[in-house]
Amino acid sequence: MKVEFAPLNIPLARRLQTAAVLQWVLSFLLLAQVCIGIIVILIIHNYWFLYVPYMTWLYFDWRTPEQGGRRSNWVRSWTVWRYFKDYFPIHLIKTWDLDPSHNYIFGFHPHGVLVAGAFGNFCTNYSDFEQLFPGFTAYLHVLPFWFRCPLFREYLMSSGPVSVSKKSVSHVLSKEGGGNISVIVLGGAEESLDAHPGKFTLFIRQRKGFVKIALTHGASLVPVFSFGENELFKQVNNPEGSWLRTVQERLQKIMGFALPLFHARGIFQYNFGLMPYRKPIHTVVGRPIPVHQTLHPTTEQIEELHHAYMEELKKLFEAHKRKYGIPEHETLIFK
After folding, report:
1. CA-CA distance, 184 to 163, in Å (whole number)?
2. pTM for this prediction
């Protein structure tokens, strides 16, 4: 295979975009382990005056990711995030006006490998979110595991993510006067194992907890589809039933997060590496589904709303797929 190298006369802006995405990828792959390693080293060498105050503070701060987190407007405004957004680039498209006096749940699809579209649109100040949805605050819900990593949790929370636990979602949706949006990547870790280019497989048939929470709080459901999310990386072939998929699924059940074996391009060449491809991401926010508050929803009510959500998600995909280069015969596959 002929290796295709990057040209030497790349504009400075593109170099900065590559650097921005590289630090983002490495932060998710390595930063948590590095932070844990720092704490271990401090303990081994008995730097108690450093780790004891932090661990004490961590004990009292443990529930913060379930109580709205601790976002930093300064961190969200780092210039690196502008270059990150422009690398792909990432676009946010609104199709319907939302009422800022209500709270909403955005169901984000698909998960992709690293959820670049969700992070770029809802965790930085360089997306068009504030212009498109004035009066709203978006909270991206991620796995609780990441908030158990000392030091790394502070970095993660500073961009705005919070836990995806039931308590966390309920806290966001309980705001009086509305204006809050819970962004939940409904397919979760399991869906990332099916994040192959050209595939549109969504793990949603058994995901009904978000529907129950929506009913309990009277929060409208909004389907969101991020076109291009699955095109950023390739994965080692892992069809269901293969030994690789079996190992991945078992590890996912044990650890709570999946380990897709992904690859794309490198920094100085385009054939292989962990850098995502420069593929545009168009995150389309669909029509809200009104939800009447029901403190004790029945199974029938949950099933009815869940079915309505899947139908609205399917309509959103069909209405916009041709704009973003998806063939007419392609459809969503619900699992």
Report:
1. 10
2. 0.94
